[in-house]
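User: Teach me something about this protein's shape.
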Amino acid sequence: MRYLSGAGLITALAVAACGQRPDSPHDTGARYPADAAGECRVLTSADIQAATGTVVKAVGRGSMPGAGGTCGNYATADSELFLGVNRLASRTEYAASVAAVPRDVYPQRRKLIGLGEEAVLFVGPGVRYLVARQGEAGIVLFPLVDERALSDEQLRSLAERALVH
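Assistant: First, the predicted structure itself:
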């Protein structure tokens, strides 16, 4: 499995944290916290394994460098970060999350038709970031592995699962 490293990982982590600090008005961790095991309620390790075939475990926010998802963070069995998840609670948070993604890091922006009411996949060299919304609820998925370990189709499938919760 290939993981992001160097500049790609730093960029992904910086964007994932953008607008999602614990003191940020966009941080929905308090409203959508992980359960006692660190699982995101809208996208569990079982959901991720079913969609990707990769065995993952929940890890606590801040428990390792890059584990910045406000709803959940997942690592592989060998403790390599795999996916971060932020939960959005409104259309305003969705819009703010989309606006916060820097064009110089993610020059490609692909609207994903049929995924919720609105969805955008941001793509840059070695990094991806998906933001989707259905009604007032939304999700941000930031893979910490490249597309060979987690494809765009699998990422979309994970967003679909999260939006129905």
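Now, about its shape. Confidence is low (pLDDT under 50) at residues 9-14, 16-30. The helical segments are 6-17, 45-52, 91-99, 152-163. If you'd like, I can walk through any region in more detail.
User: That's plenty for now, thanks!
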